Amino acid sequence: MVAGSDRDLAVRFACSGTTHADGEVLVPAAPLAETLRMLDSELVRLVVEGSRLAVRVEGARFALPLLDRELRREPPSPPQVSEVDGALLATALRTVAGTAAKDDPLPVFTGVRIQADHENLRLTASDRYRMAVARLPVRRAERPLDVLVPAGLLTEAARHAQGVLGLHGDGSRFGLSWAGGAVTTAVLDAGFLSADAIPSDAVDTEVEISADALAAAVRRVGVYSEDRRILTLEVGDAHVRLASSLQDTGEAEETLKANVCGGRTSPSFQAKYLLEALAPFSGGDVRLAIQPGMRACVLRSAEAKEVELTYYLMPMLPR
Amino acid sequence: MVAGSDRDLAVRFACSGTTHADGEVLVPAAPLAETLRMLDSELVRLVVEGSRLAVRVEGARFALPLLDRELRREPPSPPQVSEVDGALLATALRTVAGTAAKDDPLPVFTGVRIQADHENLRLTASDRYRMAVARLPVRRAERPLDVLVPAGLLTEAARHAQGVLGLHGDGSRFGLSWAGGAVTTAVLDAGFLSADAIPSDAVDTEVEISADALAAAVRRVGVYSEDRRILTLEVGDAHVRLASSLQDTGEAEETLKANVCGGRTSPSFQAKYLLEALAPFSGGDVRLAIQPGMRACVLRSAEAKEVELTYYLMPMLPR
Questions:
Q1: Which residues on chain A place their C-beta less than 8 Å from a C-beta of chain B?
Q2: Residue A278 sits in a domain of what CATH number?
Q3: What's a GO biological-process term for it (chains A, B) (predicted)?
Q4: Residue A7: DSSP 8-state
């Protein structure tokens, strides 16, 4: 078992080995991790030699100083509240954690709000300009959960976790556990981060279109827009048209087949943000629920999915 | 045929197409290139429509303004001086062009000196801290060549060129030509850039060792050196030893088998530069010719190769 922790974070992993003597030592994490990562041999020998932990392979010895084990005091893991399928959680986090800001002075924009009730897990993140919400089923729900967890940590944990994951939580800590590993972190201020705050009752136009075809057209026509910024989705009877022109560069227009319902409200978007909003729907059709004025456009998959994703994208004033 | 040029550089490529009317137009390069790159369809239609060149695929039209053809005056290509195998040139450039500085106020350190005589092509580059020299055979040599060419351009040209390449040159321009394409560039000030300026007559120690095994050991032991900087190659009777220690991190030592001839001169190197010097010899044994004091270490492949590479690496004062 390898375990490490700092003030906010604790991680433990099991790994198999042949032990000749039981024991526990504390060594500096970074040189141990780097040395092990760079060794070519499959097996290493770990030997406590005086005040050193020696990592030995043929022809080489790396010796790390033993630290005072009292220095490490791992806080207790919070109780399990429910279980979730690891693959579904990873799918949901790819979009939701990716929508959180990478760097923001306000933790609410770098975190993912995790809410669990007896049936569903809901993940919400926003960088103020767009918001992603994913809903997926939970198992064995015992208690509700509502915490804000750093997005980067969740992404990293989901990469290592496999199979069924335990969700753990109390008022001040959140954890994920799986066969052979666990990660526990302090939670951030739980949030007012909620899609309920985004008005979505004025939808008058619905467009269903291939996410990949629309993204490809946005990329191409965007070359002909000033600073590659704002493009208008011109909604027609059974198509969507993108057009742009730019002095010295020329003009571009593309017309794409689409299923259109309701009105012909034609929103404008930052090309970059529209592309990011379309990315999670790649490989299928996306349904855009469009509201007039400066109200959010709501993107959902046209097909039912086990991870139900809702993406809120703010329009821009047209150029 | 697609051709483009600016003040220093001219490029032309043939590409096959079905033409309904012959003609030649000049359009802005960047939007044309980007639009074509991002189109999904294999075929596009190019149509001159009034003052526009329209690029058409189903459902889309991109129109580029026609420019005054007088604006483009391509300088004549310099005469061919000899021929070289494209694959050998690409192999040589991988190391030599990579050794030139990416960015330096002095062009001599961002260029590759190309010297051809009746038998060989010699490529030389240096970023002041190390120098790489590659020698490869030429064919049909008619005239000698000695020019300094921007390293980045050579790398890019070698990526597109195939088969036998023509080498072109006169006092002020250098060119590469191949079936279906050519690139011509103004040459930089030809250089005093020469391995002859590096003293290499005091070699007293020769070491032959697996380049990959040495590189892997340098990476691992480097973790235990201050700022990952300087490592000493301790040359023994039939081995090389690397050792390092660092407070708080611990100690590392590795011993590698090696063929050693001559003395036991044990040079010290910047770990990063030693790794870069070993990289081109990956997959085989490298021979290090070591000189005492602050004289260059000369690296060559232990096996004969069609591209004969010599790499000069400056040692550091040991820590």
A1: 27-28, 30-31, 34-35, 38-40, 52, 59-65, 216-217, 219-220, 223-224, 248-256
A2: 3.10.150.10
A3: DNA strand elongation involved in DNA replication
A4: S
